[in-house]
Amino acid sequence: IRMYHQPTPLKKELFRDAFKRYGIRVVIGDYLGKYALGSGASWHEGTDYDNPEHQKNMLESIRKMVMEYKDEPFVLMWLLGNENVYGVACNADKKPESFFKFANEAAKLIKSLDPDHPVAIASGDVLYLDRYAAYAPDIDVFGANAYRGDQGFGSFWSDVKRLTDKPAIITEYGCGAYAYCYTREQAEEAQMEYLVGSWGDIVDNAAFGEGAGNALGGFLFEYLDEWWKGYEPSIH
Description:
By secondary structure, this protein is α/β, with parallel strands linked by helices. It has helices at 12-22, 52-69, 96-113, 129-135, 156-163, 184-204, and strands spanning 2-4, 26-30, 75-80, 119-124, 141-145, 168-173, 215-220. A 7-stranded parallel β-sheet has the order 1-2-3-4-5-6-7, covered by helices on one side. Helix 2 runs parallel beside helix 3. The longest helix is centred in the C-terminal third of the chain and has 21 residues, at 184-204. The two termini are 27 Å apart.
C-alpha cells in the first residue's frame, strides 16, 4: 500500500495489524513540496526548490517521517514526491534540475537515518527522466504515475533502462469502473481489460520476463472510484 505521512498522520495500529494478519507492507511517502506540503510555502506561492527556507522545511519533514516510522515492521520503502514535475503548487516543472538535485539530497538524508529501506521517487511518467538520471544517483528506484491505456506502458521500461541503471515501479496506474458513454456492464469490462493489460505488461517487464527486466511492480490507483472523473457528480 502506498501512503503519505502528511498532512494526516497514519494510524499505525491499522498497518501493524494488516502486516501481522496478512503480510501487507506499506511504502511511506513525503510529498516533497508538491501541493506546497512540507515546504512552508502557500499554495499560491508554491514550493521553490531553490529556496533555502523551503529546502530546510522539507528536509525536516522527511527527517520526522523517517524517525517516526523507520522501525515499524510494515515499512517496505520510502517514496519522494507525487508527480511533482507536473508543477501543481511547486516549480519542479520549471526547475526540474533543481528539483531532482534536491530530491537526491532528501534521499541521502533518509539513508543517513535509515540504511535498511530503499528510497524511490514518484515522478510524472518519464517527463524529465534525463534530469533524474543525471542528478539523482542516490534514489534507488525510479517510480512514476503512468496512465497509458489498456495495452500497458509502452516504452516506459526501456526508456528507464536506457537512461538509468535503476529498477522501475509504476506508482499509479488504473482506471475507474465508471465511464459516461458506457453501460455499467460495459464500463466494468473496459476497466478489467485496462487493469489486466497494465498488470500483464508489468509482469512481462519484470526480472526473467520477456521485456526490459527492470519492473518491480505497480500500485493500482485506486480501490474506490474517483467521482470527479465523471465530471458531473449528479449523474453518478
